Amino acid sequence: MKIDIYQKVTDRIIADQEQGELTWLKPWSAGNMDGRIVKPLRHNGLAYSGINVLMLWGAALEGGYCSPYWMTFRQAKELGAHVRKGERSNPVVYAGSISKTEEQDDGSEEERTIPFLKAYAVFNACQIEGLPEHYYAKPEPVIDGAARVDHAEAFFAATGADVRHGGNRAYYSGGTDHVQMPVFECFRSPEAYYATLAHELTHWTKHPKRLDREFGRKRWGDEGYAREELVAELGAAFLCADLALTPEPGTGHAAYIQSWLKVLKEDRRAIFSAGAHAQKAADFLHGFSANVPAQPEAMKGVAAYAAAFRFGRSGNGNAQNHMARHRHRNHYHAAAVRHGRARQTAQ
Prior knowledge:
The chain is α+β, with helices and mostly antiparallel strands.
């Protein structure tokens, strides 16, 4: 029987939300994950992206795995190791596309790109015996607060976004293209401030001159609004993992849960699409940091995700051109080390 990977992942996230939990924040609250939270890594050290991050974070929590490394049965064997008997795999997905030439009515030929999504099985390093020692090492402890603030300041300043402070609400204004934040001292911790800023800057990426992300929002609380908020939530979680920050749920997240549940129950592909858009936004923001090299293949992979899910409007190339223009004139430096993102390949 063929497993509906969309439905399986969506059901898991719906179950979390019906209990008042946000799947993308659970890694930070888990007792067995006492080290720094990082994105799941492939056998070669490259980070997974998009929906695979959520899927593998959840699998690690359920299985009690402390290693961030995941690999296929064959990859483990190639490393001289073996999966323990009786261990169960977890699925990850690969989004790609194939080209097909079709003859038109007038006799001309037209090439059509057909997106696809397929799942394959991986095991955590904790399920495998005989791997080199570094695969079993726990992530390093969370860095001290002062250093964390310093590199977060540098990262967000590098975007060049118009961030204004004042008032008691955090929001992105599309009309004036600025992010409004309460003053730093209003937040209960530096991390709460930066997690909120990551959320709002994910919204900032949706502007037509950046990623041109639009879900048909008409009013507060409608389906388009819920989808965009879900993208911002995931984008903030991805950025916090990259920057060694501990995210906190926003003050309004409880109210959002009901609207997210409605979207997820009506569209089993919605969380996949939101993860793809969130990853694209996070990659875009990373692109402003002078010490992060261009990742054209990663951007192509994210675009493939968005196409495969047929949801929202994909960028038209403005994002990469915009990043290229700013990368050379950027004078800021982000101290956070980011795991490379390369297009995922099934092996």
